[in-house]
Automatic annotation (TrEMBL):
InterPro entries: DUF2344 (IPR018768). This is DUF2344 domain-containing protein. It holds the Pfam family DUF2344. It comes from the Bacteria. It comes from Paractinoplanes ovalisporus. Residues 16-206 form the DUF2344 domain.
Length: 255
């Protein structure tokens, strides 16, 4: 990688790179602010030629898209960086991945195409593991949740405690095939929920849906659930999520 340049005398952005990264294992408890600090240090260690904003207090050109809540794992977080010099995306990925702690993993890097990354994300798919909950009990709670047109839940926000509907943003929720029970279950029952939620305002998070299951059916897991974001993207009419980097990937050469 080229040596990272200091912010003085800012050079223009000549290339934009979009990254998909994962938060795994104990690093799921890293807050977005902590990740941002770690990522900026990683840029320095990897000597990435990051571009900076103008003004008296320049900042590296980094744009984050829909960060997962603290305590939630993810296989599909996205960000975009602006560079002062062109780089090979795969070499950048390898250098950044090596510069970050294991569990904060750079999964993919592509040259950014036209349009906004944020405009390509309007929904997320989540996996919720409910330890010590029998799957039939979870299925009954999901059924009760789906039968309601509105499920009001409360959450503390920056504006104070707010009440909002956790049902309308949910486009899919089901108890999945239980054949691959997590090792953490240790012989105890474990219900696994597959969830797709649209991005709305205020945001409906997996913990809000769990609150909705409690409101709808009294479901209260005895231990904290494990939540992982599996995908983000644009939701099609068929209920599939289109990866936001699909439009940026180079088409495969004919064989």
């Amino acid at each position: 990688m080229a040596k990272n340049q200091p912010p003085g005398g800012q050079a223009p952005v000549v290339q934009r790179i979009r990254l998909r990264y994962a938060k795994r294992g104990p690093l799921r408890f890293t807050s977005h602010r902590d990740f941002a600090r770690a990522f900026e240090r990683g840029l320095q260690r990897a000597a990435v030629p990051i571009a900076f904003s103008q003004g008296f207090n320049p900042h590296p050109k980094i744009s984050y898209a829909s960060a997962a809540p603290t305590g939630v794992g993810s296989e599909a977080e996205y960000l975009e960086i602006g560079l002062q010099a062109e780089v090979d995306p795969e070499q950048l990925r390898l250098a950044l991945d090596a510069a970050l702690s294991p569990g904060l993993d750079i999964v993919e890097a592509v040259v950014a195409g036209p349009g906004s990354l944020a405009d390509r994300i309007d929904a997320s798919r989540w996996r919720i593991e409910l330890f010590s909950v029998d799957p039939p009990v979870a299925e009954a709670a999901v059924k009760a949740f789906l039968e309601l047109d509105e499920v009001l839940v409360e959450r503390m926000t920056k504006q104070g405690r707010r009440s909002f509907d956790a049902r309308s943003a949910v486009t899919h929720i089901a108890v999945t095939d239980q054949s691959a029970v997590p090792s953490e279950a240790d012989g105890a029952p474990c219900a696994i929920i597959d969830l797709v939620v649209r991005q709305v305002t205020p945001a409906v998070r997996p913990d809000d849906v769990l609150s909705g299951l409690r409101v709808a059916a009294g479901l209260e897991p005895p231990v904290p659930p494990r939540v992982t974001r599996l995908a983000q993207g644009t939701l099609t009419a068929q209920g599939e999520l289109v990866d936001p980097l699909d439009a940026d990937r180079e088409p495969a050469l004919p064989g």
